[in-house]
Fold these 3 entries.
Entry 1:
Amino acid sequence: MTPANVGTVDRVIRMVLGVLLLGLYGALEGPWKYFTLLGLYLVATALSRFCPLYRLIGLSTCRT
């Protein structure tokens, strides 16, 4: 199991933004429609408490 690197506040922000982006999927057209699919990444990282990009740059928002 990978260590968590996404803290509680970060998780809430990711979840809210992810759901908002996914909600815009049906409202937008063209290439902007597919931009909203980034919401899937935000929701997935919020649920798993792990962000691969944070790991690459050595960042963690979890309390130690």
Note: DSSP finds four helices and no strands in the chain.
Entry 2:
Amino acid sequence: MTPKATPKRVTEQVYFRLRKDKTVEADFSGGRITGLGGLPLLGEQEMTTRLIEGASLAVIDRRVGRIKYTMSHLFRQRVLLICAGYEDGIDSNYHRHDPGMLLAMGLSLNGGEALASQSTISVLETQRMNGANCYRLAKYILDFYISSHKKRPKRIILDFDGSCFPAHGDQAGTSYRGYYETNMYFPLLVFDQHGWLIAAVLRPGAHAEVQITVPILKRIVHHLREVWPGVEIVLRADAGFMSPVIYNWCEANTVLYLIRLKVAGGGGGLNAVAKQYIKSAEHHFRRRFGKEKFLGKGGQKRRNQFETQLRCLPREERKEELHKYRHRQVREYGAFYYEAGQGKKKWGKERRIIAVCDHTDTGSKKMFLVTNIEHEVPQRLYEDLYCQRGNAELFIRDLKALKATKLSCSNFSANQCRLLMHALAYLALHQLRQLLPSSVDRQTIKSMQEKFIRVAASIRESVRRVSIRWTSHWQWERLLIHLARRLRLVPLAT
């Protein structure tokens, strides 16, 4: 008896009225089509770097009995979905059979395999990843940073910064912070000068900026010098980290630092000592440009009117006038030794202070930096070293572009786990970004997702091969092929 053929799936037809000359129809019989056609690139990169695999091996899995999904599977699934822009656990349900995800995970498209469900991911975050496992994962991220260097670096600059992660409910550890006017967590993030994320530690929202900074710095410096003895390490941070506790530790452990000082009120003694640089900037401004335009009563109003008039000029004239206006500035640098603080907060010794004094049409502006870097001119310390700290803000923006602020679990350890999963996703995309040619402008993590991960593709699996057919009109085709070449997926001769 001849077996009956498997009936084809019948889908309801949809008709559009967009064309008058032809019928426009649609149904769900297009086959395996994914919006994540570039995700296999990350899967291929993972086979080389073993970033996520190593993270899964760093934690302890105490499950016994029959295990359907290994820790490696769960880590790869969670991190790859975050890389693709799906940060919620429930997204696992929506993409369990997505061909782009299955292929990036190395799973069969025809074998009936599926990704883990939301409930399994939730158990991973809330039960498997306790505080001890989060610590092991955080330690692994530092170890991976070290192992990713082929040779010993001459200098490592550590950018420490805190950031506002708004609360999504009444999560443990969140609290109201007046400066940001919201309930929040306040994680401590550490990057190197090239954008590598070295540490991501979740802190309660009420923590001070400098809280747990020294223990984290101590752990990082110890590991770095254990592998690279004698490597020069520089701590760079904003005024939130001005603390003699940090200065003392750095000086006792031969760590260089350059930290901005927050001057309360009128600046007191610092302004008195730096008065000569402030007066010099004012004198040179008046000799070069004349009297200030916007000083005194009503100065802000006159400035607003002046800038409004400038922006009403024709394009070329506007550009020229704005250029002249913004260059009406004189900057003076100075260096001196000073002991700040009062009572118990007194430094106990004099330290080198870098003064950056600007004079413009609105008056004088001052900035002070404290450092233990000797024999370096103030201008180079500020322009070549401290100003580059702005890149750390861009790196934090990239991390937040992965929706790392979505720490909505009620458990503090579960939210620490989520932050570390997003850190792994950031590192995976950062490594892919480093493969782009140097002639291409710096890509944000968001643009990496849009250009190289979320690519429409048709995927088919036959007996002998799996075929990915990317859309024919992808404007980033050249760069995508370049990434494939760097991952050795395309013969170099082609």
Note: The CA atoms of residues 284 and 330 lie 7 Å apart.
Entry 3:
Amino acid sequence: MALVIEVLDTTLSYDRNVKLPRYAAAGVPEVWIVDLEGSKIGIHTEPSAGGYEAFDESERGEEVRSRNVEGLSAVVDEVLG
């Protein structure tokens, strides 16, 4: 598995505190959290035993690019609608 994309509108705390550590422990190399309420996309990379070592966040008007899937990119506005 190269990438997981979580789309959420109310479960940000659960996704960050429960799901992210599980994905990291499973070795998922990249997780995008699409925060509909906050109008942001967070990209977590570099999984380790303690979670993800790298994090980048993009807002409306910006573009996100996968670090692990070549050619995968999106404008945040298009993803959020």
Note: The radius of gyration is 12 Å.
